[in-house]
Amino acid sequence: MATTITRLPVQVNLVLYEGDDFTFMVTVKNSAGQPVDLTGATARAQIRANIQAPAVIGTFTPTIDAAAGIIWLHLTDSVSTTLPTNGVWDVELDRGGDITTLAAGTISLVADVTR
């Protein structure tokens, strides 16, 4: 009998309000549930219209709290204003060339009223 080992990102679907800032955190933990030290790590998170789209249509600004194992991702109001109604996103962690996609999913925008 075959064994399958899978390491896929956590599915996280985002629903945002157009024209608003949006910030959320991703906590990186080891198998024992303890925060991973992210000293020296970098992160990047992009939004595209679909998985195959070559163009990046939005970028989250990451801030890392290394000791706590937390990556804060911030999307500015000026970026959320330009996004289409639907898209896809993910966040990658780079630890010295070891790349791990931590979370990925869809992104949906709700139209704002006050402009």
Description:
The chain has 115 residues and is mainly beta. The protein has a single domain, classed as Immunoglobulin-like (Sandwich), CATH 2.60.40. It is 3% helix and 49% strand. The chain contains 1 helix and 8 strands; from the N terminus they run E-E-E-E-E-E-H-E-E. Strands 1, 2, 3, 4, 5, 6, 7 and 8 form an 8-stranded mixed beta sheet that branches. The protein is globular, with a radius of gyration of 16 Å.
Task: List key phrases describing it.
115 residues, globular, 1 helix, 8 strands, mainly beta, 8-stranded mixed sheet, Immunoglobulin-like
Question: What's this, in brief?
Answer:
This protein has 115 residues and is mainly beta. The chain has one helix spanning 77-80, and strands at 10-11, 14-17, 22-27, 42-48, 58-65, 70-75, 86-95, 98-110.
Helical content class: under 10%
**CATH architectural type:** Sandwich
Query: SS-based structural class?
Result: mainly beta
Note the total helix count: 1
| Total beta strands | 8
Topology, element by element:
Elements: E1 10-11, E2 14-17, E3 22-27, E4 42-48, E5 58-65, E6 70-75, H1 77-80, E7 86-95, E8 98-110
